[in-house]
Amino acid sequence: MTHIAVTEDDEPTGGFGPAADAEQRLDGTLVDAEFGYRVAQFYFHEAELLDEGRYSDWLEVFDDDLHYWLPTRSNRTRRQQALAVAQPGEAAFYDETKDSLAWRIRRYDSGMAWSEDPPSRTRHLISNVSVRHKGEPEVAGPREYTARSAFLVYRSRLEREVDLYAGSRTDILRLHADGALRVAKRTILLESNVLLAKNISTFF
Asked: How large is the average pLDDT for residues 59-78?
């Protein structure tokens, strides 16, 4: 799907784009073990919601200003890796807000989403959770953290449709004054650059 020819004009001029940054490094100090455990449990609960098809409940893990982004990838030479992930505004499998995710979910129940009727069965395995402080702790407003996790998602539908997705998620998490933890931004990177599935109706 995304076999992009490499030319000299594609040479990066230095630095990494936002998507490449999200993939390659996280800044900030690690949180303590107690909060790291809480975030891991938050992700495990989210995985249960997805695997049980409780999508309306799943939406509640996100803040209202959510950006949910799954950019495409392309095969590049080693020195051009900064260009291997599509930038904001370029091709993406998902480039969603909370409202547009809600619209997708409502469509599942409309009888018009043929790719999910009968629905898929999924199992989300979440691991390698790493959580870091974002910004200065004394800043007013919700406390923010950067969290990265790895996932392996098995999807089965009907008798013969089986898909396997592997990748990572980099989240901006907000801890609100009422103690609620929500995702404000999610960047998803799949390890494959060509989707072999017939469609993509799986959330990560």
From this structure: 95
